[in-house]
Model the fold of this input.
Amino acid sequence: MNVAEALARRADSGGWLDSPAFHADRTWTHREVHSLAARLATVLRERGVGPGDRVALAVVDGPELVAAFLAIARTGALAIVVNPYLAGEHQDRLIERTRPALVISASLPDGWPAARWSAAEHLVAVAERSAEGPAEPVADDADLYVQFTSGTTGRPKGAVHRHGDLAAYHRAVGEAMLGISAADVSLSVSKMFFAYGFGNSLVYPLHSGSSAVLRPERPTPATVAELVDRYRVTVLHGVPSAYANLVAETDREAFGTVRVAVSAGESLPAVVGRRAEELLGAPVLDELGSTEVGGAYCANSVGDNVPGTIGTPLAGYELEIRDDAGRPVPVGTSGRLWVRGPTVMARYLDAPEETARVLVDGWLSTNDTAVRRADGRFVHTGRADDMEIVGGINVSPQEVEAVLGEHPAVREIVVAAVLDERGASKLRAFAVPLVGEERHARLERELLDLARSRLAAFKVPRSITFVSTLPRTFSGKVQRFVARTGTW
Done:
């Protein structure tokens, strides 16, 4: 069934049509969102959008984005979800590459025909005078939307997902992992154009009758604390750097309503997780997912949280650890992580060779590395392309970062192999100290002593450089390739 129609019926049968769905400039009910989506579908059809067409959606987080996404679904078209914060030329190139029938964005892309573009505000204004349109009948495996990878290792690739995927996301994460109910209020630091934020802010509220706080801006730690306190947020979704910043800049009083927090995007250092749990007074669950899967596939859960691990496979997913030749490795051995499950992407958009490289017999090669423990839990050990080579020896930067990050004066840290003046690769660490921490010379000695006491000699960084920020993508992931330059 068309997911937009299925969600509207679910809200009706669940009795939450008149309950809050989104807290933005005002509070929107589930009924208002579904009604606007149905009227927007009428407007889109009048603009010539029909089954199989592509519609680029570059809109900031808000109820209008949710309604527009559902409207595209109702027409049977394919939503191309685009980062609305991309610099103009980068957004324009990405849109042009996908060849949409219509672009919905804040401004007309450079060189794009005005007849094939509209601002979201204009469509909403027209929809207010329009009748509700029906949902195009489609199968669960029909194409629904495309989300792009972060592009940290090359050109972003568009993962194609289906109408039936959203319900599977909610069964695995919203229900089994988090136990989200209509009484919950969620806040996601990650935005909806990311797979992580899409599930947090759109999928779980619409499937559970709960509500989510939506803001167009990237929130500061103080803003997160204020929003949690104002809307009595119960489920907080963030990335490791966001939790590190909350610990450094906010107080516990604001987080009394939080019952569970989730960390994704990159591995959660154990020390950051511990500090965040002390601040929030709630468990912080580490999970692993990807754009290609559409959400998380391995995680800790409310009733089964083991810090330092990414838990166990979520309902419906299978994981295997393989060597570089694709052969399974023994328990306790690090290798490449492969996943199979109901929401693994159908394909990369217009990229059959890239698809064939990562999709093999229904299994997805994730490019993550991990270890499966004897108890069935998994430990994430990094990205396959994040390994550093120092003196011809492979070094996991995450192992070094985990040790150095335990120092109480360190807020964040990244370790990378940097070329010295002779062109030799040397391991360096770049640390963000806590606010007010000025004793850099002494702190560097303490960090190097800590590394020497816990790590093999070849894993000890040659130096510690103190910086105000780490190089990160918009989603909060560390750009290790930038750290390798030694300057940013």
Remarks:
- Residues 3-138 form a domain with the Rossmann fold fold (CATH 3.40.50.980).
- Residues 370 and 380 are 4 Å apart (CA to CA).
